[in-house]
Design brief:
Elements lengths: L7 E8 L2 H10 L13 E7 L2 H13 L30
Antiparallel strand pairs: 1-2
């Protein structure tokens, strides 16, 4: 993000716990094995401005060698809000 001039307020990384993975595999028949899960690791990048968030998302999407994106289960929650509305904005 620094090399792209994107100001980041905070970054968080999470790895899904073994118990959480087990529950997900048991609850959702579409997941038959651990290899079917696509959200084992997550990274949250928080920016100060919406423009920076959009630029950060482009950096992540454009770096297919570093990140694997599950497009079928991806969603940009900002699409639900108009520009002048306040609310949860996130690109999953």
């Amino acid at each position: 993000m620094r090399s792209e001039g994107i100001n980041v307020a905070d970054t968080r990384v999470r790895v899904k716990s073994g118990e959480s993975l087990k529950r997900k595999l048991e609850a959702k028949p579409k997941y038959r094995s651990l290899q079917d899960l696509t959200d084992i690791v997550g990274v949250r990048i928080i920016t100060y401005y919406l423009d920076d968030a959009e630029r950060a998302a482009k950096v992540i999407r454009g770096n297919g060698q570093m990140f694997s994106i599950d497009w079928a289960n991806s969603e940009n929650k900002s699409d639900r809000l108009r520009t002048e509305q306040f609310g949860y904005r996130s690109d999953h």
